[in-house]
Design a protein that fits this description.
membrane, two-stranded antiparallel sheet, transmembrane, 174 residues, Lipocalin, 3 helices, 6-stranded antiparallel sheet, alpha+beta, 2 domains
Length: 174
């Protein structure tokens, strides 16, 4: 966030410098309001560009094994351009390297998911998935896993096979 603020300030200064050079070239014929308006417009453009570029930069920097399974596009009234071109402000990834199974319960899987947001800290949630029953549940302290892989204390949520998490984890033969 700090570097984005610095970039925004420099975009404004650069545009002010360009307007000053143009004004000098045409011997001061530009109205005085052009420079601050152009600088403000450049700062606004830099801020909007950073909003749209965040998702791509973040996904490109994800380590191997993290797969994007869901995106949330942002449309909001105080940013009217987002109705034409929404931007992704949060998304969910699954850590496929974290997948754990029990030999006696091959259809049950535990996998870590990360919820990443533009202006929020990442949130890690371990999820229990039953590929045979098309159900899933967040792993909590109330859930116990027996030595035989049996699960107790789970509040399963039924999901369609097209659920992004279920389809990503279970399509590998679960």
């Amino acid at each position: 966030m700090f570097f984005e603020s610095i970039a925004t300030v420099f975009a404004g200064l650069a545009m002010a410098g360009i307007v000053m050079a143009v004004n000098h070239t045409i011997r001061g014929r530009l109205p005085k309001w052009v420079m601050p308006v152009a600088a403000g417009g450049a700062m606004l453009a830099a801020t909007i560009a950073n909003e749209y570029a965040w998702y791509g930069r973040t996904v490109d920097s994800l380590p191997e094994g993290l797969t994007v399974i869901m995106e949330s596009e942002n449309r909001v009234a105080y940013r009217p351009w987002t109705y034409v071109a929404p931007f992704v402000d949060r998304f969910v990834v699954v850590d496929t390297f974290s997948e754990r199974t029990h030999p006696d319960q091959p259809n049950l899987r535990v996998v870590d998911t990360l919820f990443l947001g533009r202006w929020s800290a990442p949130n890690k949630v371990s999820v229990l998935i039953d590929c045979a029953a098309n159900t899933r549940a967040p792993l909590s302290d109330a859930i116990t896993i027996g030595d035989d892989g049996s699960i107790r204390g789970v509040d399963w949520v039924s999901v369609d096979i097209t659920d992004p998490l279920l389809s990503n984890i279970c399509r590998k033969g679960g």
